[in-house]
Amino acid sequence: MLPDFAPIHLLYLAIAIALEIAANVLMKCSEGFRRKLPAVTAILCALAAFTALSYAIKGIQLSVAYGIWGGVGLIATAIFGITLFGERLRPTGWLGLFLIMAGVVLLKFS
Predict the structure, then answer these.
(1) Cβ atoms 19, 49 nearer than 8 A
(2) Per-residue pLDDT for 101 more than 60?
(3) Which of 29, 57, 93, 94 has the highest CB neighbour number within 10 Å of its CB?
(4) CB contact at 8 A, 53 and 64
């Protein structure tokens, strides 16, 4: 189980996840960094995400925080890709997302 930590660290982790997702969606919207506003905003969101993650790991173990940040961010980004941009996943892609979710859950209980 996770050791005790202050709820503020979970808030920082949630903010880091949201900013990472925003950065990824904006990167797609920037069309290969040809559109300047989404490109610059994506970079700023990525920097802010790492900043929030750095605050989160002050109270959450690095391996757990980074695993959750990366896993949840990846799954949410995939969902946004499907819903906003009409991207499709093959069955192996869905299996991969399921395995990532399982890994994040296992990390939580390690």
Answers:
(1) yes
(2) yes
(3) 57
(4) no
